[in-house]
Amino acid sequence: MTARNGQLYQLSLTGVVGGLMGIFITRFFGGGSRLNPDNILEQVKHQFRQESPIEGAWIEKHAVPFQKFAVKSRVYYGGITRYEDDKLVQYQFVADANTGSVLDIHRL
């Protein structure tokens, strides 16, 4: 093994170990923390308001288990009500409790 190959191997190993330590530290010190459901609701309301005013909104305060295909997480269920073509329309959404990402949304 040449000195250059040894340096590359050492850098690769350092990168892998650093990445694993980052994952461990994140999970140990707060990776399991959940976002405030009210903040998630405000984000969803903001997105809906870009299209039209909303009449009402809600979100459950307790995260529940959720699985879509092979992906498992904890989520909050919520809903938005707004007028579309002079008719009141309701939407239900599912938001990841850790990231706030909307995983699913459908019109009721």
Automatic annotation (TrEMBL):
<keyword id="KW-1133">Transmembrane helix</keyword>
<keyword id="KW-0472">Membrane</keyword>
<keyword id="KW-0812">Transmembrane</keyword>
<protein>
    <submittedName>
        <fullName>PepSY domain-containing protein</fullName>
    </submittedName>
</protein>
<feature type="transmembrane region" description="Helical">
    <location>
        <begin position="12"/>
        <end position="30"/>
    </location>
</feature>
